[in-house]
Amino acid sequence: MDMQPATEIEPTRPQPAARSDRRVDRPRAIALMILAITFFSALDTSAKYLGQHYSLPVTQVAWSRFVGQFLALLVFVPVFGSLSLTDLFRTKHLKLQLVRSVLMASTTVLNFLALQTLRLDQAITIVFLAPLVVALLAGPFLGEWVGWRRLVAIGVGFSGVAVAMAPIDLHGTAVSFNIGVLYSLAAMLAYALFMLLTRYMAAFDPPMVTLFYSMFVGTFLGAPLAYLAWTTPPDTQAWIMLASLGFFGGMGHWLFLHAYRLAPASAVAPFLYFQLISMILFGYMAFADVPDSQTLTGAAIVVGSGIYLFHRERKSTEAPKP
């Protein structure tokens, strides 16, 4: 999950008027979204592999992701972006940017902890609850209340996670409780709060500024924690995988932002659920993991609820105003 999800939602608070000359290209936007999701899945797979195969501390792995992406921003933003490095520090809400950045760092660490004991497909199933939690909390936090249909969809989505992660499988056989479920739920909740702040901040700061603060705070906040737990990678492959974390996260974010610029959220957001497929594929290739019927059933319930929620939000947005 890139804090990722993984996955920022298009803001629904008042925004500056969109450029009228911006070309809508849905096929390209969908392709970019799928590619972005694939990079995010590669990020989670690499983090899990570094922890399980090389026993590298989670704080070290998470910090390597942040510092790699932060250095990439410092290099490429002045080259390809319209903002200078000085502009990246200019924000209208410094405290909220810092809180949002801490939430992202917390989400990353908690997600990487969860991945040490959960399969990739199990972890992403819980992450898929985040948009549902955002919809639920958008009312008290942002004044964006949902109707009864979406409330039902949210409830059904939570039942899907209960099915996927229940300590008793679909055949009635008791299984041991996995602490990774708690880590993943905590990561999902932090991620939902992170997305709510992202929606709010989008009305005040450019997306690149918001992304920059996430990487800046994650890099400098995580540095002492990574230093205290630092374990020298034992071989070249481990070093390459650590270095790749920033690349996977940075490319995922860059493609993600461009996907939303090429098409409306209603066209690309449902393709976020492609990550379940990519996680299953990476899990099988890297760890020989095969999802069980219980996880797939729960995931299908969560994904169906999420897609219905996107559908209802699109209908409410397109409804003619009196």
What does the radius of gyration come to? 19 Å
Low-confidence stretches: 3-21
The CA-CA distance between the termini, in Å, is 41 Å
Overall geometric form: globular
Structural class: mainly alpha
Q: For the report, how would you describe the main beta sheet?
A: none
Oligomer: single chain
Number of strands: 0
Strand proportion? under 5%
Order of helices and strands: HHHHHHHHHHHHH
Mean pLDDT: 84
Q: Count helical runs.
A: 13
Q: Percent range for helical residues? A: over 70%
Features:
72% helix, 322 residues, globular, mainly alpha, 0% strand
Can you put this structure into words, describing what you see?
The longest helix has 27 residues, at 26-52. The protein has a domain at 42-137 and 179-291. The protein contains 13 helices and no strands. The chain is mainly α and 322 residues long. The protein is globular and about 50 Å long.
